[in-house]
Specification:
99 residues; alpha+beta; 4-stranded antiparallel beta sheet; 3 helices; globular
Length: 99
C-alpha cells in the first residue's frame, strides 16, 4: 500500500511529539543522532530497530560508529516523509529508552 506524503504542517506537528528528531533541509526526510553508553547498547538498539523495521516493511538509512547511530527516515516510494516514517521513529525511540 502506497503511503501518502505528509505536508510540512503535519510533519511539524508530528516532530513536536518526538524529542531530537528534525526535518532535513530538503524536507524529504526526518533524522536523529542517537548516542549510547557503548557499542553494545548501540548494537542492541539497532537490532531492536531492525526488527521493528521488518514488521513495518520500512527500512531506515543509518550509520553507526561505536556508540552513535545516525538515522534518516524517508519513504522513497512516496518521495518524502509519511506516517510510516513516524511509526518507525516511535519504535526507535522505544528501543533507545530501553538502553
Amino acid at each position: 500500500m502506497k503511503q501518502e506524503k505528509l505536508g510540512k504542517e503535519a510533519i511539524t506537528s508530528s516532530l513536536a511529539m518526538l524529542e531530537g528528531w528534525t526535518l532535513e533541509d530538503d524536507g524529504l526526510a526526518i533524522a536523529k543522532s542517537f548516542k549510547f553508553k557503548g557499542f553494545g547498547d548501540a548494537f542492541a538498539f539497532m537490532s531492536e530497530s531492525a526488527e521493528a523495521a521488518e514488521r513495518l516493511n520500512h527500512h531506515p538509512e543509518w550509520f553507526n560508529v561505536y556508540n552513535r547511530v545516525d538515522v534518516r527516515l524517508t519513504t522513497h516510494s512516496s518521495g518524502g516523509v509519511t506516517a510510516l516514517d513516524f511509526r518507525l521513529a516511535e519504535a526507535m525511540e522505544k528501543a533507545a529508552r530501553e538502553r
